[in-house]
Amino acid sequence: MLLCNHQHIQPEAGCDEAGRGCLAGAVFAAAVILPLGFRHPLLNDSKQLKPAERDTLRVVIEKEAAFYAVASVDNLEIDRINILQASFRAMHLALEQLRQQPGFILVDGNRFVPYGTIPHACIIQGDGIYASIAAASILAKTYRDEYMQQLHSKFPHFGWNDNKGYPTVQHRNAIREHGETPYHRKSFRLLPDELEMDVDL
After folding, report:
1. What are the structural domains, with CATH classification, of the chain?
2. Is 17 annotated as a binding residue?
């Protein structure tokens, strides 16, 4: 069973991101403040859920959360500041959009850039421990999947409706055949190093 809020005087927000390891597209992050005692039998780390379960939970979270926000940082900014900093930036943007600022922040993972003076804790695999982080992971994942579905309609060769921009064989073969798009992260290794077949004699 996932843990709910710590008993802070001010509410706590769970934060998580989606799309850090992708070769294309923006990174998304969400911040969620759940009401005290919130429970849902399906709520878990978004990666453990089927797409239909995530979609069901997104509706529940958006209806039941005290406050929530979703933000993104695009591939151009990712290339400019690097993916780790872009992930933190997306989380900060989501926190900024909350209509009530939290008294404490729970972050999935082991690193975070402090957000103002609000204390935080980094929780490795926190999306499987804290309900607010799990809720944030679901919102970040479902919003990003929708975004990649939209990009798929512009660039159908890459299979982004299925691989969501992750480095699958299908995705990398499409990069070899069709080249890069304006949405690819140029700072990432889009194709693995291959043996040089041409030798200058």
Report:
1. 12-178 (3.30.420.10)
2. yes
